[in-house]
Amino acid sequence: MGKSVVGRFGILTSGGDCPGLNAAIRGVARAALGLGDVEVVGIANGYRGLIEGEARELKLRDFSGILTLGGTILGASREQPFRDDDRVPDSEVGKSKPDIIKANYRKLKLDCLVVLGGNGTNTTACLLAREGLNVIGLPKTIDNDIWGTDVCFGFHSAVHIATEGIDRLHSTAASHNRVMVAELMGNKAGWLALYAGIAGGGDVILLPEIPYDVKSISRHLERRTLEAKPFSIVVVAEGAMSRQEAGMGKKERRKYRESTGFTTIGYRVGQELAQATGLETRLTTLGYVQRGGSPSAYDRVLATSFGTAAAQLMAHGDFGKMVAMRGSEIVGVPLAEVAGRIKTVPEGHPLVETGRLVGTCFGD
Ligand code: F6P
Description:
elongated
């Protein structure tokens, strides 16, 4: 790879955690330290650590034994310094968060900042790059909704966990002849529900991208009952919405949801289906289990590859990019292309078509 143009870099993990973060941290650090004369500064709790100056130098031994570890050894937060730019108390009065970050970047003598995160994190990275910092992003999220990359690390581990959950619901659903609603994460994009739903043989899969109609789901469940399949699995992404809601603006939808009194969409779908079909219905929310634990073998490989690719971009001084998978190639895409965008499940996606061909109902 040749000698690195970077002598000292900071690394942070921002946004919700996911399996594979430590594998990626290890990949970046090992590859960078392998070039000799490079120093690594671990920044605590995402961008918050850069605002509060919470950072320490890390050595090669700090990256041992973390490949298989869930979570992040650096800690994470959902701090978005440009969005939540309230003045920081007890700090340099009057300075904005981005200004404090820039000052701390200089104080820590960083030549580059490597950020591991989702949409918000990479958008912030782009804005910091515009402010003159050398930044490199890595895409992580169980939602798989980062623009510019085919896949994000964390996603396949979550698919695996969610599929196992659905498998377990199958046997109990069959024993009791029940409709089992499984609510999965995925607020704006339904990738996780789509993949786990197909892998787990969900009879119904509801995604934010395909607004649902209770009547059409009910017909599907009733047809199954007539075919002597008196149990069903309904996989619901947390951001799924009805046709009626799809016609509303964001604010109106939020208000409407509050007025219905259901804590999550899964509860609502469960009750709507029970009322419409008379079938006994139960809800399971998989929640944070989907983000926890050891990364899958695929995510370990992906995160390590992304990490080492980030170290290569850094060594070449190829800043302002996010590491991405395009087809079977790992590339650097400009952060400006990624910022502010979300990759949702497009209409007619092959996996949706696959689902339809095996008889899955998407609620439309
Ligand atoms: O990591 C993304 C995500 O899993 C979303 O699907 C979910 O809405 C969100 O995180 C919730 O996380 P938190 O409670 O940590 O903000």
